[in-house]
Amino acid sequence: MSAQAQSSVLRELQKAHGKILDVSRYIIPRDDLAIAYATVNSTDQKGVAIARGTSVGFGVDEPLVRTLLTVRRFDQSVRSAACIRYEDDILQTTKETLQDVEEYDPEKYPVGISTMDWGIASICRKGVPLAIACAESSRGPGRIYLLGTTPDEVANRILIISQRLTYIDI
Questions:
Q1: Domains identified in the chain, total number
Q2: Which of 134, 128, 123, 162 is nearest to 63 (CA)?
Q3: Domain region containing 129
Q4: CATH code of the domain in which 152 resides
Q5: Which of 81, 107, 117, 147 has its CA 20 to 30 A from that of 130?
Q6: What radius of gyration do the chain's Cα atoms show?
């Protein structure tokens, strides 16, 4: 991967991350809001950059990066992902906004396989949706993964969902 490709990914990622810094705290997961962006030919975590808080960089091993890499096995055009908190009202607003949201039950995973990898892959075999939801379970907190071709596209979806939730609360 060239330095120019890395620089371009980081620049686009930082720009998109800057757009979502002021979203409603309600949709932000406990471990903070993160957004990931993969280089065109990425096949492992070294080719995926992630922005979380004030940190931006390549090669981080975390669920968001693994989710994006699993999705890319089914659709290489999906290069960006973010994760928002799972709550019933957030999920409902996400479904109303994006229309293309799939869910999996983490309690039904086969033994010996990563729950997340199994859940993401089982959904993506039928086609990659705009969002994938996973309810809270004994294996971890609930998450809604938003997917897109660019971090700007994903950031815009976060902003729209956040604004619609705020509007509903008024």
A1: 1
A2: 134
A3: 3-169
A4: 3.40.225.10
A5: 107
A6: 15
